[in-house]
Amino acid sequence: MTSLNPTMTVGNQIMEAVKTHQKLPSTEAKEKVLQLLQRVGIKDASLRMKQYPHQFSGGMRQRAMIAIALACKPDILLADEPTTALDVTVQAQIIELLKDIQKENGMSIIFISHDLGVIANVADRVAVMYAGKIVEIGASTDIFYHSKHPYSWGLLSATPSLETTGDVLYTIPGTPPNLQLPIQGDAFAPRNKYAMKIDQIKQPPMFRVSDTHFAATWLLHPEAPAVDAPKEIRMRGKQAESKRRFENMGDEKIRHTDKVMLEVSHLKKSFSNGGSLLHAVDDLSLKLYQGETFGLVGESGCGKSTLGRTIMGLYKASGGTIRLEDQSMGTHYGKQMKREFHQKVQMIFQDPYSSLDPHLMIHQIVAEGIILNDLAKNKKDLEQQVAELLTTVGLDPNFAWRYPYELSGGQRQRVGIARALAVQPELIIADEPISALDVSIQAQIVNLLKKLQKERGLTLLFIAHDLSMVKYISDRIGVMYAGKIVELAQADDLYHCPLHPYTEALISAIPQADPLREQHKKD
């Protein structure tokens, strides 16, 4: 989404590609730009081509990028995570657009993604990469229903579906190898519970499973001991061929008390938009109960992140009241009130890269809240608290003396969680905390949040556009549209019996890591 030049109009950026690759005169090139914008589904193309990227929504920017790619008349289109930053409905639109263009032009698409649901929807064949190498390749059904590599098993097991239940999501143990160092044997061996002695010594070749299916694992060697895929992997094909079932959905998740932790009444937040007002949060009322996880979902631009930031006081509310336990916060916070509020309410931000100050060590980032609120007796106590917080979120205490750039995305998000926990809050607002992470790291962060909630009695407001993950972690879910909550229900009830057409549309657009189910959607 940042691939477009912010200083050039969208039309000129497409024009640049057209002139470079098709050698057309300006008049014809301009007409071609108009046709390309219309072809990728941008309405009012003649007006839009004169606008800048910041005037486009995320989905429109992605369509503009597709138009630039099509200007070259390619035989192969390389789509690198083209839907990752988009909500499910826009994601579905972009996928359908790419499929339509593929059929029209007869081109091939290499679709790179960490979203297995999207891959199940779009791919004829799938390659699984680990540590710079393809470790398994096959037809889509080969990989999703009959995978042979333990890493493929791990990715599939870590991906929640709408039927996923239980307290803990599966995660792949350990971390990826440092590719700057030499790797002896199979790169996945340190994380592979099925690893044999030969895995530590020699890299496996690609073994043939069928004419369409190959995998690089010593488990396929004729002399290797027989190892069955995990039960959930073996059951995938059988479940896909059977009728979708909703019975026996697992234990009741509701565990909160009747005590209201946070109450939002008739909250409003408006922004000036070229002389008019944009009502990002429009007369919204909501209660969060102590100890619950409340999921908040909706398309990009529906106001869910604005709601979270307004509750936090990062945006000044335009109207309404916010009550934390028995204390009314009004629509704006004084300095002392804000400090007291932020001791009880903290936020985890979406981007683990931009939300940490790159100039500060991890110790300074985590310690900041402790120092501001006088929660440490002395320097030794401060260092001990920071070390304990890092340990709590699953990081080595020695990470305290590193900078953010030295950490992976998942590790940085854990630092963000440690920072939020530092002041011992009662409520955490998690604003898209996993959207920038791959599937296994997402599972780790969600498991961590559930564990911390259980241990500390935290209340969570979990904002996301990944509806499968929201269902898995949430007790109740609110669906936002145009600044309002249009439906609110227990998590299972919402997904099994949605009452609002918008909720139905969101749920039907959820991509599932199941090619047969994705095919059934189209039929």
Describe this structure in words.
With 523 residues, this protein is an alpha/beta fold. It folds into three domains: 10-112, Rossmann fold (3-Layer(aba) Sandwich); 125-241, Rossmann fold, CATH 3.40.50.300; 260-522, 3-Layer(aba) Sandwich (Rossmann fold). The protein has 20 helices and 16 strands. A six-stranded mixed β-sheet has the order 12-13-14-9-15-16, with helices on both faces. A hairpin with a 2-residue loop joins β10 and β11 (327-328). It is globular and about 65 Å long. Residues 240-252 have low confidence and may be disordered.
List descriptors:
523 residues, alpha/beta, Rossmann fold, six-stranded mixed sheet, four-stranded antiparallel sheet, globular
